[in-house]
Write a structure and sequence with these properties.
Radius of gyration: 23 Å
Largest sheet: 13 strands, mixed
Order of helices and strands: EEEEEEHEEEHEHEEHEEEEEEEHEEEE
Shape: globular
Number of helices: 5
Number of strands: 23
Length: 329
């Protein structure tokens, strides 16, 4: 069990000369986050523009300098939580410095490329080739990988290429994945890879918000064939999902696709929109090691059972975290 009061954070700046400076005494606020949609983790710091040796911090902490965030608890050794570079720099007349840093995957989000892959290559092979081209070590342990048709990427972001490939696998098999940077590698893996499953109970949870709606619910998909010159397109297949909520119908037009491909698209629609949409947001005492994709137990408010972390923001100075969760099905 972690004693929350024992958690301590260390923030280090590594300058362009390689000098290391501990920023704890200058720290006003600190948070870092894993977003559901982006690959790169993000850290935001506000610092007093203190003297560091003979220089002010604002003259040392420059764009592209390294920020490392470590945490320790229960008297243990420091563990690295975040390792990134300064991307945004801002100074105010209140003698404060604001920095925003991202981990190494931000370069994949900010860079565009042109790439071509022949038909028959697997998801893992294509992503592996992209990562080699961009000098990003890859750990691919997700238990899903398909054989793709010919792939041509023209002027797309590198992260967008990777996300599209992974989404294609998800659309085919319906099994979720997690993509994040840890230990100097891009990890693509199954959710729930954490060896320790932490429990958030009434004592460690500050607030819970659980909301559901069926505004985007789909319970039936009709597959329409090619449109004739006159008249309406024929219904070639009907794919039903959970009809307890009645018929809420969506249309898939086959066009140049085969019927099998259209059925896959219908199945994907039912997977993504075939259940009531649920949004779960929790504010709790911080666990600095928690990252997106981790499996946790929650016994607080209306939440009972196991969940996956979709996104997490660690508010280090308040020793709190904001989580977006998804129920384990």
């Amino acid at each position: 069990m972690i004693n929350i009061k024992s958690i301590a954070y260390d923030v280090e700046l590594i300058t362009e000369t390689g000098a290391r400076h501990l920023l704890n005494d200058a720290l006003i606020s600190l948070e870092w986050e894993d977003n559901e949609s982006g690959l790169a983790a993000r850290a935001s710091l506000t610092l007093a523009n203190a003297m560091v040796g003979t220089q002010r911090l604002a003259s040392l902490a420059k764009i592209n300098c390294v920020i490392q965030i470590s945490a320790r608890w229960n008297g243990g050794a420091r563990q690295l939580m975040f390792d990134g570079t300064v991307w945004d720099w801002s100074y105010t007349d209140q003698n404060e410095l604001s920095l925003v840093a991202y981990d190494r995957l931000v370069r994949l989000q900010q860079s565009k490329d042109n790439r071509y892959y022949r038909a028959g290559m697997t998801t893992q092979a294509i992503i592996g080739d992209i990562c080699v081209a961009w000098s990003i070590p890859l750990s691919y342990t997700w238990n899903q990988s398909i054989t793709h048709e010919k792939k041509t990427f023209n002027g797309e972001t590198v992260s967008g290429m990777i996300t599209k490939l992974l989404q294609e696998v998800y659309d085919r098999h319906g099994e979720r994945y997690v993509a994040l940077y840890r230990g100097g590698q891009l990890h693509i893996m199954n959710p729930g890879n954490n060896s320790t499953v932490y429990c958030l109970d009434e004592n460690s949870t500050i607030s819970v918000k659980d909301s559901q709606n069926i505004n985007q619910l789909v319970t039936r998909v009709q597959i329409l064939g090619r449109q004739p010159n006159s008249g309406r397109a024929p219904v070639e297949a009907t794919v039903d999902g959970d009809l307890r909520f009645g018929v809420l119908q969506e249309i898939v037009r086959r066009d140049s696709n085969t019927l099998q491909e259209a059925r896959r698209e219908a199945d994907s629609l039912l997977r993504s929109r075939g259940r009531p949409c649920e949004t779960i947001q929790v504010t709790a005492l911080d666990l600095p090691m928690l990252r997106k994709g981790d499996r946790i137990e929650c016994q607080a408010g209306s939440l009972r059972g196991f969940f996956f972390v979709e996104s997490v923001t660690h508010q280090a100075t308040q020793k709190q975290m904001n989580l977006t969760l998804r129920r384990e099905r």
